[in-house]
Specification:
The complex is a heterodimer of chains A (about 260) and B (about 80).
Chain A lengths: L17 E9 L19 E5 L2 E9 H6 L1 H5 L2 H19 L5 E2 L5 E2 L2 H10 L1 H11 L2 E10 L13 H10 L11 H14 L2 E3 L11 E10 L3 H14 L4 E9 L13
Antiparallel strand pairs in A: 1-3, 1-4, 1-5, 2-3, 6-8, 6-9, 7-8
Helix pairs in contact in A: 7-8
Chain B lengths: L6 E5 L8 H10 L22 H18 L8
The chains are: A alpha+beta (about 260), B mainly alpha (about 80).
Chain lengths: ~260, ~80
């Protein structure tokens, strides 16, 4: 009858077409099912076997994540909700086993197209699993300390108040850390990390940011990382402060397809 | 900003507040790219044009939204 070809697996009750949104891959199936909402906070994540690698996907609206993805990414409310949900889904897997996280916004039309692409990258993926084994990603930032001022002095006008307040903010272009001190810091971090990667580009413009890096650290070295950061934090107490976030899934330590060619 | 001499550790696996810029730094910039002509879309970082100040303030909205919807379905079988 209908010459309308439909893939039932990606067809919803509502009739809305769905695509497979990829969160990441693991080497083994998990013994317990994972109950975790997907990037749209509605679909549930599920496992798809791909030639011995388990791909974690959820079935999301094709309209929202295929046709309108670029537009949606410019909508900050949408982007913030979706990126936090993406992170949560991968983190739920990472708590159970080593995971190779997928880049935000990677979708496939169906299982066959997903399998085909995983098969084509099998060699790199196997290497990546080896690289991130028992390790997490950590973000480290060093900020120039804000000038210490007790309170905003009594002012006569609103303009004076705002100017006094602005003067307390860290400068937009923070002073660089002196070369020798920075080298010491980087060497100490290299001593506890397996690898380092370029930091993300989004927070590069944060006020007072002097230095930023991304590290891959074995779980057994987590305490050592904290010790290094505490040591430098004491040393820099008068001038700088350190922030550390993690553990992240190893987003920055998976091979980037044919980018390096 | 932390107090002098201390490190601010924000644990992503606990209840610590993680700023949205940090999430975007890790989530958007990297990750496995599985490329091919059958991939129907791949989000590029360059598409994202957002001011940092806006990002910092909107994380609260996102977290509220997620908290409201992240309860697992009770009728799941």
């Amino acid at each position: 009858m209908g010459d309308h070809q439909k893939d039932m697996a990606t067809e919803l009750k509502s009739g809305e077409r769905r695509v497979l949104y990829l969160y990441g891959m693991t080497q083994a199936r998990l013994s317990a099912p994972v109950r975790q909402p997907g990037v749209d906070l509605d679909s549930q994540i599920e496992a798809v076997d791909c030639e011995g690698i388990v791909c974690w996907i959820s079935r999301v609206s094709a309209k929202e994540f295929e046709q309108s993805l670029a537009t949606n990414m410019e909508n900050l409310d949408w982007l913030s909700t979706a990126s936090v949900a993406h992170q949560r889904a991968i983190a739920a897997l990472a708590q159970k086993t080593d995971v190779l996280p997928a880049r935000f916004g990677t979708v496939f039309r169906d299982e066959n197209s997903l399998r085909k692409h995983v098969r084509a990258r099998m060699r790199e993926l196997t290497k990546d699993f080896e690289r991130v084994k028992d390790a997490d990603e950590w973000g480290v930032k060093v900020f120039e300390s804000a000038p210490i001022a007790a309170t905003i002095p009594k002012v006569k006008s609103g303009k004076d108040y705002l100017m006094a307040k602005a003067a307390l903010l860290p400068r937009k272009n923070a002073a660089q850390i002196p070369e020798e001190e920075l080298a010491d810091f980087q060497a100490a971090l290299a001593g506890v990390a397996e690898d380092t990667a370029a930091p993300g580009r989004i927070s590069g413009g944060q006020r007072g940011l002097s230095f930023q890096t991304t590290l891959l650290v074995k779980r057994s070295n987590r305490q050592q990382l904290q010790s290094v950061l505490k040591k430098f934090s004491k040393k820099w107490a008068a001038t700088r402060s350190i922030e550390c976030t993690g553990p992240w899934p190893p987003y920055s330590f998976v091979s980037q397809d044919s980018k390096s060619q | 900003m932390s107090a002098p001499g201390t490190v601010v550790f924000s644990d992503t696996s606990g209840d610590d507040q993680i700023s949205l810029v940090d999430i975007l730094d890790h989530v958007l910039n990297q990750g496995v790219i599985v490329r091919g002509n059958l991939i129907i879309s791949l989000a590029g970082v360059d598409l994202v044009y957002v001011g940092l100040d806006v990002i910092l303030t909107s994380v609260e909205t996102a977290m509220r939204h997620i908290a409201a919807t992240s309860q697992p379905p009770r009728n799941a079988t």
